[in-house]
Each structure stands twice: as C-alpha cells, then as structure tokens.
Amino acid sequence: MAIKNMLGHTLDLLGEAILSGHYPPSSAIPPENMLCVEFGVSRTVIREAIKSLVAKGMVSTGPKVGTRVLPADQWNWFDPQLIAWNSKIGLSREFLRDLQELRRVVEPAAVRLAAERATAQDIADIEAAYAGMKQAIEFGGDYVSHDLLFHQGLLKACHNRMVIQMSKALGALLRTSFEISTSKPNGPAQSLPMHRAVLDAVIAKAPDKAERAVLKLIDGARDDIEMVLSSKRKLPSLSLPAPPLRAPRQVRAKAA
Questions:
Q1: Degrees, nearest 5: CA angle 105-203-152
Q2: Which of 12, 60, 211, 243 is surrounded by the most beta carbons within 10 Å?
Q3: Residue 14 is part of which domain span?
Q4: 3 CB contacts (<8 Å, ≥6 apart)?
Q5: What is the DSSP letter of 235?
Q6: Tens digits of residue pLDDT in 181-213
Q7: Does residue 16 sit in the same domain as residue 112?
Q8: Quick one: what percent of the chain has pLDDT higher than 70?
Q9: How many domains does the chain have?
C-alpha cells in the first residue's frame, strides 16, 4: 500500500475511533510506538495522521502530555472528512438536530441570493435535478441523489463561496433527510410540487417567494426527522447507497 493510502487509512481509523468514543474527550491517544504496532505503519504515517487531527481541532499535542482528544465543540464540524467519519459510524440525534437548525438558518438566505444571482446554467442544472426527481417518482429509480443535486444546485446558485463550502457539511443532513422523507408513503410525490415552487420562484427572480417556499420544504423535512428520532427507529446509513424508489404499480404492470 502506498504511503498516501496508508496515511488516509490510518487517519480514517483514528478519526472514527475518536468519533465513536473509543478515545473520548480529554483522554490520551496511545503513543506513536504503540500506534505503529496497532496499525502496522511507520512513525511518519502516525505523525502525519496526528497532524491532520490537530488541524481538524480534534486533538492537541504537547511535551509531557502527549496527544489528547479535545472536546467535541472544538472540532471542525465543517470538515468533509469529519462528516464522513460521523456518517460511517452513525449520525447521532444531536448531530442531526444541529444540522437541521443550521440548514434552516443557511438555506433560506442562500435561496434568496439564488433568486437574485442564478445564471442560466444554474437554472439548467437545477431543472435537470428536478427532472431526475420527477422521473424517479413516475418510473422508479434514484430519487435521493437528484434531490441532493437540486438543493446543492440552489446553494451553488447563490454564488457565495462560504455558503458553497458549507454545503459539503449540509450534504450529510440533506441525504439523511431525503432518505427519511422518501421512506414515507407517497412522501416524494407530495414534496415534488414544493420543490417546483422553489425553482419557479428562483426563475422568476422573486426572493421573498423563494424563501417562503424553501422554508416550507425545510420545515416538512424537520417534522419527518423529528418523527423518526422520537420513534427510535434506526437512522439511514450514509455508508450505503440510497435506496431507489420503486416504480408505481401501474408502471410495473405495463412493464410485466
């Protein structure tokens, strides 16, 4: 295995160990020589992995104290790798609620800007995502990926680099939210007109209308998530592909 791959693999293992609580906040991570034996890698790989964890705000290092895990509120929760690790071990209910609140703050403002700034290419990309959602509802297929592209397209269309960067973190919530909504009977079909209302408002360059429309979507998703959280049902795993929609019964009958 190349050094780069060994580093990535080792970093993943350490990051997941911290997020899973194997190394809880304030605890010490084993010294380099022990980690070298445990992971079967060189000291160079361990040192580089620890440097990456320091950069993400997850650990601190110092003479005589070694490497210690920092409190979770100091971690860089916008780091895509941290999001991926959290998704792999299982998104916590607290994490989902934090992201849902963030989405309600960020996405309506971003959609307002999109209604003012969206280019013809932005609109075409969002229209394509909407068409993919509609196709999946009518004939079966991957609805969730197109739903994600729809919302990421809206964030991109605001043409604010900070918001676009934030969308990488929001992607974890959006994917989970869409899977939960998709699992509801007729959920995608019910939400499709609300997506159309957002897109039409952006096309019409109507910021107020676009903001109201996306808030309606977000609040519906929040209600779906809270229902699942309160029921203690297992949350979707982001390490697996999103389940596709089944074709409507009449479409399946014609194909038979």
A1: 45
A2: 211
A3: 3-71
A4: 44, 45
A5: P
A6: 677 777 788 889 999 999 999 999 999 999 999
A7: no
A8: 89
A9: 2
Domain of 47, CATH number, reads 1.10.10.10
Does 222 share its domain with 133? yes
Cα separation of 67 and 73, whole Å? Answer: 18
Same domain, 150 and 51: no
Question: Per residue in 94-148, pLDDT tens?
Answer: 877 888 888 899 999 999 999 999 999 999 999 999 999 999 999 999 998 999 9
Of the candidates 20, 38, 71, which is a domain's last residue? 71
In sequence order, the 6+-apart residues with CB closer than 8 A to the CB of 145 are 132, 242
Beta bridge partners of 29: 67
Please report, for the domain that includes residue 160, its CATH number: 1.20.120.530
Same domain, 145 and 35: no
Beta-strand pair 66-69/59-62: antiparallel
CA quadruple 227, 231, 236, 237: dihedral sign: positive
* Residue 225 token pair: 């998530």
